[in-house]
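Quarterly update from the structural biology core.
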Amino acid sequence: MKKRIRSIPDIRKFKGGDPLVMVTAYDYSMARILDRCEIDIILIGDSVGTTQLGYPNTLSVTMSEMIHHIAAVARGVKQTVIIGDMPFGSSHISPTETRRNAVEMIRAGAHGVKLEGAHDPDTIESLVRSGIPVMGHVGLIPQSIHAMGGYRVQGRKESDRDQIMSDALRLQQAGVFSIVIECVPPSCARIVTHQLDIPTIGIGAGPHCDGQVLVINDLLGMNPDFLPVFVKQYADIHRTISDAVRQFSLDVRNRSFPDGEHSYPEENDGDHPVNS
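Predicted structure, tokenized:
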């Protein structure tokens, strides 16, 4: 069996080799499942805002909310690298304040943090010097949707491709260990991936990146109202859950649940564990 990734330095070794696999998680139960699925990285994304907290976008997610979910995921993980998203407003400040926020994520259980956009190199260098691994993020930057005019594919114009390339090189020089490329044409991602010495992880960026990431809710088909072109649904959990709960409701109403099989025996035969 292929050796599992267990540390940040191992991720760099995957440049140009076997593809990296990254999936999001937001709670203990899902983290326990994913930790046993031979994936390489679990990302606690600020997508927690839209997938778990009901926000219209990721901009409302707070540091305290991210810390809460990072800690929950960390309690369920034994062997997978954990990366926490720095939420909006937590990193586009002074290097000192950014470092303080990143330290809180590491204390909560993350092995590294992800920053969106072309940050001041001094900020990233400050984190790296402090022993905090940093993952970059270029292309579509959800935390900058107002400046970008919404969720739009990036890198179609030559000038935009040049900017993405420049941002990626700037991040690499500052010390990031990998870069997420989001929602760009495959040709753009291929050029960026070829030029960098560190792994790229694509989402809506085609097949040429060094790895791929999907939001777990999208991968499992938990939201039938959201299906961008880059998402492949590997299950229909929305239907599975709906069917199961409807059947439970029906069984309760017609008094077929609980039945004898799902009730404790009447006879006194000593202690009877709840889970047996």
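The domain at 8-219 is CATH 3.20.20.60 (TIM Barrel).
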